[in-house]
Amino acid sequence: MSKHIYFHITFWMIIAGINIGFTINFFPLDFIVFSTLFVLLFQSFVFYTNVYLIFPRFFSPSKMTKFIFISLIFVLLVALIQTLADYLVLSKLAPLRTHQNEFRMLLMSFIRIFFWLLFIDIFSTVFKMIDQIRKQAKHTQEITEEKLMTELKLLKAQINPHFLFNALNNIYSLSYMKSDKAPESILQLSQILRYVIEDCEKEKVKLSSEIEYIENYITFQKMKSPEKQSIEFDYSQVNQNIQLAPMMFIPFIENSFKYSNIEENKSNTFIKIKLSSKEDKVSFTIINSIPAKSAYKSGAGTGIKNVKQRLQIIYPTKHTLIINENNNEYKVDLTLETK
After folding, report:
1. What is the residue-wise DSSP string for 202-237?
2. I want to staple 280 with a disulfide (CB 3.0 to 4.6 A). Which of 126, 328, 329, 339 is the partner?
3. What are the strands, taking DSSP E only, across the chain?
4. Pairing, β 231-237 against β 271-278
């Protein structure tokens, strides 16, 4: 049973209870039951006529005066009809009939009925307004979520070409240098692409898959230079079963390789990567050296901009990203709340 039905049942039980409370000390049970149902008939007519007919047709913030006028006329007419019906039916059946002035009795009865029905009408208007606001909020949320999902799909679609562009550059470099590592790099690339194409289509992946991808990526990058490179990747303090959105860290790692010039094996160049976790929080830190005279590279910043957008969509209030840069180092600290 829906919440709406529970609300209506509860509401009319309360109204019926109030109606019974006015008569329980004066009349027998059979008359109380009949009079309560008789009164509820008019009250429910006012409620649902306003909800399904008057409010949808006439309610508008720009035409509020017209809506109020129509509602008052409607309540007034129903109150007159109920007063007349009350006089012709209930007053004749009442076991304790009074012989006071009938006009005064009708007037007092009309005033009481009018304000009761006016209360019902106002309550139904408030109920309909709240329902309308709720539906509008739900509709707005659905549009927002659809827009975010569309943006997210576009951003994820950018990941593959961006990575593939860098990977092919690496293989080209190895082939150009006629390195024996070229065939191995192609095999390594196939393993990396399998993750990018298959796993990255999922909303979330295990952290272990991200770690494996990063290790493959580092190995792939190392093939570009025969010299030993100062690259550290520490994930000894991480829960690898944690699930998170894929490809959140790799843009920063790509960026570090691009700007550290570590493949050229210049002195004092390094990349340090650390992954750790505590409960459902994952912390990612990467520090890379910056050469004294770092040349600008075309296309720089695409991956970083991409991941910032994805963070805003997937983890809007559940991430912190701090980027610090000085003359010698570039440091990124990213924390994700994955729960």
Report:
1. SS-EEHHHHHHHHHHHHHHHHTT-SS---EEEEEEE
2. 339
3. 205-206, 231-237, 243-244, 271-278, 281-289, 319-325, 329-337
4. parallel
Task: List the chain domain ranges.
Answer: 3-140, 177-337
31 closest CA partner among 80, 93, 76: 93
With H, G, I as helix, E, B as strand and everything else as coil, classify residue 248: coil
Residue 87: exposure state from Cβ atoms within 10 A (0-12, 13-18, ≥19): middle
Residue 293 has pLDDT above 70, yes or no: no
- Residue pair 245/260 in contact (Cβ under 8 Å)? The answer is no
pLDDT per residue as tens digits for the range 51-68: 999 998 888 888 888 989
**What is the rounded distance in angstroms from the CA atom of residue 253 to the CA atom of residue 256?**
5
Spatial contact of 70 and 58, defined as CB atoms under 8 Å apart: yes
Q: How many CB atoms lie within 10 A of CB 334?
A: 20
- Tell me whether strands 281-289 and 243-244 are parallel, antiparallel or unpaired: unpaired
| Separation CA 260–CA 42 (nearest Å) | 80
Q: Give domain 177-337's CATH number out of 3.30.420.10, 3.30.70.1140, 3.30.565.10, 3.40.190.10.
A: 3.30.565.10
DSSP β-bridge partners for residue 286 = 273, 332
Please enumerate in sequence order all residues whose Cβ is within 8 A of that of 40, keeping only pairs 6 or more positions apart, or say none.
12, 15, 16, 19
Q: What is the pTM of this model?
A: 0.55
